[in-house]
Design brief:
Elements lengths: L5 E7 L7 H5 L10 E7 L3 H10 L5 H6 E4 L12 H17 L3 E4 L1
Parallel strand pairs: 2-4
Antiparallel strand pairs: 1-2, 1-3
Length: about 110
């Protein structure tokens, strides 16, 4: 299997908490904890972040509230096969939510 996929985490501005849908998806959010977007990609995470900010196949939260990548949360996981990246995207989001983060996943 080709290890060509990456998971990535984008820090979101806390203004995202004003969005009802985001708050509803994060009932256990701990006040003051980071808000993040967790995704997976077949390209370099830096390029994918730039695409989000430019509106190319962008998630609305990543585009509007994305500040920066948070490589310390994902670099050690990459790269991996497609199926593993699909699983890890969900697993990482769950673990971050359990740590009190506000998380959005596509």
């Amino acid at each position: 299997m080709r290890e060509a996929h990456n998971v990535y985490v984008i820090e979101l501005d806390s203004g995202v908490l004003s969005d009802r849908k985001f708050r509803k998806a994060n009932p256990d959010y701990r006040l003051g904890a980071p808000c993040v977007y967790v995704g997976m990609t077949g390209i370099d995470p830096d390029l994918r972040f730039d695409q989000h900010k430019a509106g190319i196949k962008a998630n609305k939260y990543a585009k509007a509230y994305g500040i920066r990548l948070v490589p310390e949360l994902y670099e050690h996981l990459n790269p991996m096969p497609y199926g593993d990246a699909q699983y890890m995207e969900v697993d990482l989001g769950i673990r971050l939510r359990e740590a009190g983060y506000g998380v959005w996943q596509a």
